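Entry for the shared binder. Reason: the reviewer on the internal report wants the predicted structure included alongside the sequence.
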Amino acid sequence: MTASYRNHTDLPTGKRNDFHTMRSLLPYLWDYRGRVVIALVALVLAKGATVAVPMALKHIVDALDASKHHQLVLPMIFLVAYGVLRLVGSAFNETRDAVFARVRHGAMRSMSHRVVEHLHDLSLRFHLQRKTGAITRDLERGTRSVSALLNYMVFSILPTLVEVGLIAAVLLIKYSAWFAIITFATVAVYIAFTMTITEWRMKYRVTMNQMDSQANSQAIDSLLNYETVKYFGNEPFEMHRYNDSLVQWENAAVKSQTSLSALNVGQGGIIAVGVTLIMVLAARGVVAGTMSLGDLVLVNAFMIQMFIPLNFLGVVYSQLKHALSDMERMFRLLEEIPEVRDKADARALEVGDGHVRFEHVSFSYDPARPILHDVDFEIPPGRKLAVVGLSGAGKSTLARLLFRFYDVDQGKVLINGQDLRDVSQRSARAAIGIVPQDTVLFNETIYYNIAYAKPGAGRAEIIRAARMAHIHEFIEQLPAGYDTVVGERGLKLSGGEKQRVAIARTILKNPRILIFDEATSSLDSHSEQAILDALAEVAADHTTLVIAHRLSTIVDADQILVIDNGRIVERGDHHTLLVRHGLYAHMWELQQEEGRSQSASPPASKYALPTS
């Protein structure tokens, strides 16, 4: 059964519970729980010292106010306490920052690692549907939002809430209950107003993210397909698509900023009302004699300490919501379920002599369009089986099933008598090497790309593989030799050069089972013969599956399968199939005529079509 994957850029935009998103982050903090506790203790101590500073200031003012009626005496103990509390508060704040730095950056690293690892775990179907630019943008924003979220929580929101709680407690204990009531009421109204307006504004941020990802995806796609864009002169078309997305992003960004200004005005009004009421109460207390001048200074300092960070809490909450929005798409990636998964008791493949069998296999990428129908064949150890057929017949699908990029709908794929669904994917793929038709290389050196098959290989092994692939001499002629960087997707090399690098890479891996998927399709006739000789040497004593378009490359196969519309319609060796005058013979004749038309005096074919 095949899974149905969503296109990543079309992930559901329904509201994901913010608490669920934040809870998803907890496992990444668990490894640093000790540091989290220390940072929180430092946070509370820092805020305790900060709240104590106005209390020391109150005693200083009261002492100076009282001494003006007598002899002026400096309240040294309170002045020293004032300075010490300032120093202690700063020290604990820096301790919190230093201790929590490892938590913040460690969580970012763990999250990035987990997402990329999960993307590698997702099956081929997902990656064929993905838009790389959008995914990389979401991953970049998501990991940054982890740092931002932790930053806002530990350095802004929690400190402010702790400070509000401590100040309200002092006001409730030392003064009229109205001070605490007004403080709590102001904070409550402020938070409710901020959350309501910010929730309303979030739709603009969501639109900004979607358009940002879409524009980035379009830009990357157009650059990756640079030559195609130039072939068709479609630069204006590409820029029009890109600009349309940017215009939508711009409109959403402007609405987001203007609504933020309205939010800030409302927040400022709520704070102004709260501070005014508190100061009126304090001034009345001083006039009535129930409060000293120091008490007035204390209350004023409390309000300044509390409402200045609270004023920024609106911006912080808005940024917190933005961070949660950015994290949402990243966590949705992690919720994608791999289509192909190892069983809980999956064991390592025992490749043995590499016997391969497809046992009555049927498969479809989409239930409405079956690809393979009751395909049944085997490749004995050390033998070479070739598969030919028209484009779209299902030839390359056989290689994908053997690598277990997909699971079959019916039947079994067996290696050495073991169903691939019963063994680990890693062990099965370690036993198979492939030279694909479309070789994609890393934007690294030639040395790196060959060594990728065996990262611990020595230079002598890599050079030997390059020699066997008939590419060593070409590499040596390059100015940088093996240190030549091949460019994005290997675009600095020709198709034939890339294929020979792929052949060298497979030679270095030295697997028991080999797959050649039209491995010489990009080579000229001279190079093709050299590579065929090298492949014959490499494939000796290996179980080999060859997917071919040029029939001249598989005339030595032990068995040839002809696939048409997903079914095996003919099988046999080259001579047997020619004698039958079926589809294979027809394809052979067409290719022979094509070869004759390309040469004025073609050599006589060793494998001429028999006459009846």
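Summary line for the report: Residues 235-288 form the longest helix (54 residues).
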